[in-house]
Amino acid sequence: MKTSTAGPLLLFAVAATGVARLQPPLAKAAHEVKQRDDVYALPPPAQLRVATLGWQAAAVDLLWSKLLVEYGIHFAEHREFYDIPNYVDAILELEPDYAPVYRYVSTMLAYRPLHGTDADVRRARAYLERGTRERPDDARLWLEYGQFIAFVAPSFLQDAKEADAWRTTGAEAIGHAVELGEDADRALSAATMLTRAGATDQAIRFLEHAYEMTEHPSMIEVHEQIGRKLATLQRSAIRDAADAAARRVNERWEREMPFLSRDLYVLVGPATEPLRCVGVAAPGDPSCARDWGAAVEGDTR
């Protein structure tokens, strides 16, 4: 008795047709889900240390490699990548002073696929500041930190005053990097930023350190550049201090004795309140100063 093959063939044809029709939309849906939703499968950092079973160094290298690969894939596929902090937190839980993380975390967050935000640069700054605590003598890290918050991060901030404050802090960090051994010519850019921010005294201090550290004959060109910049700033600081003192004297003259000529007022000296300027507390009160040096200095406090 011969068995008919028509039934199995028909069933196979129907099944193949069904697969052919269902496979493309299912594959498309799976691809879209993969593109839209990343799954971070690792445990929280505190539990991850136990899960490594003592192989912490190997786990750190594996996590760092995975982070680099995922960052590249998301960039290539133009997909958002929100799990960067998860990887970074896991790595730093296992190895808090892991240098590669601090070297690249600011770039990964500020230029995160597709685009970093204000919150991302603030998080990057927090990571870098942790790095300066974990690696306080790492000149390169201090330089990375300073350059990031001075040049990159301010463009993400909405408040202009806050951005200026970040630039000043960045300049100070760059100056500290020079003190730790980074190229002394970095002090020139730091000094320029500090001067623009009105922190001339800090700029002079950084340049003085840099000038002392570049006395070797092999660094004569940089040494001379720093010397010229330092001399300019010192002259400017003296001139600015003199101008500020003159303004304060003029303000007091117009307020206290405008009926006298300015020259005569300067000879008479600053006015004081007799009742206020008696007793043991008077010598420490700037408003009771009887000479212009102490009076002008007191007006700046």
Write the layout of secondary structure elements.
Blueprint (H helix, E strand, L loop, with lengths): L5 H31 L8 H7 L4 H21 L7 H11 L4 H12 L7 H17 L4 H14 L7 H20 L6 H11 L3 H14 L6 H37 L5 H7 L23 H8 L2
Helix pairs in contact: 2-4, 3-4, 4-5, 5-6, 5-7, 6-7, 7-8, 8-9, 8-10, 9-10, 10-11
Radius of gyration: 33 Å
The CATH architecture name of the largest domain reads Alpha Horseshoe
Q: Please give the number of β-strands.
A: 0
Let me know the average pLDDT: 78
What is the strand content?
A: under 5%
Task: Supply the number of helical segments.
Answer: 13
**Spans of at least 5 consecutive residues with low confidence:** none
What's the SSE pattern? Answer: HHHHHHHHHHHHH
**Helix/strand/pairing category:** mainly alpha
Distance separating the two termini:
114 Å
| Helix content estimate | 55-70%
For the biggest sheet, the summary is: none
Number of domains: 3
CATH class group of the largest domain: Mainly Alpha
